[in-house]
């Protein structure tokens, strides 16, 4: 099947305030967001939606729709990310969380892991007072204060260096990030992977908090409250890498089966909290227990958290993770204690 996706970079450049623009022509911002991240394949979108987006961007359909271009993932060896919403190499990846859900810890862990793989990180200092950011600066290679400094540092490091660039939403709202991306696109600089976050937590209530994204990580209040970290929502997080033509079919199948199980488990968990397990049919009890074990397995000890957790950080490569999850889905670990699957790397 031919790979078809939206030209997210073009939309970012041409329609900075996509939320308002989409609403003005009768499009739901959530639909546009899902098209950008691949949660809704372009081939399943209504024709009027694609035409409306092309009109907003003042471009042709051929410019808006990219064909045959592969979207590469960066393997982080973080189970929840690599399974549910893989990091898009060279793309823009947004973190959506309220304070206290662990987004900065995830960011610091990504800096740590990607640095081992040869990436260099640059952080644009957020506007205002954010003392919590100080805790992750030890894991950042370079900190800059303006978008101009960021551009100069990227140019200094050169096009042959894989870079991670991070900015707070304040720089998105004023158009600085769009300007930076446009400058980099003009010179063919495609080695910069961007992370966007919002330290205020206001983005949780918006459909397109950062404009078009290749990857969206939605953090989950319930997981955070139960200390299931990384607290990445398994149903709301998504990535353009997940489009069928971009991802290995085995990976995609396991991802879809996992989401289906976790969706039903979450429904059953709400019932169990109110009524207990006694009223669940036997088949639903099995679904509940497997979902419980999969949720536990997707927790993971982080290297940057070792001084606080007392647990050694763990890497889990993609093939191993997919095989572990296949066995959970098929019942090989139905007799395992849930706690034995929490905060481990691979299943020994």
Summarize the structure.
InterPro entries: ATP-synt_VA_C (IPR055190), ATPase_a/bsu_AS (IPR020003), ATPase_alpha/beta_chains (IPR050053), ATPase_F1/V1_b/a_C (IPR024034), P-loop_NTPase (IPR027417). This protein is of the alpha/beta class. Helices cover 43% and strands 12% of the residues.
Tell me the CATH architecture of the largest domain. 3-Layer(aba) Sandwich
How many distinct folded domains? 3
Q: Which stretches are low in confidence, meaning pLDDT under 50 for 5 or more residues running?
A: none
Mean pLDDT: 92
Keywords: ATP synthesis, ATP-binding, CF(1), Ion transport, Membrane, Nucleotide-binding, Translocase, Transport
Subcellular location: Membrane
Main location: membrane
Protein name: ATP synthase A/B type C-terminal domain-containing protein
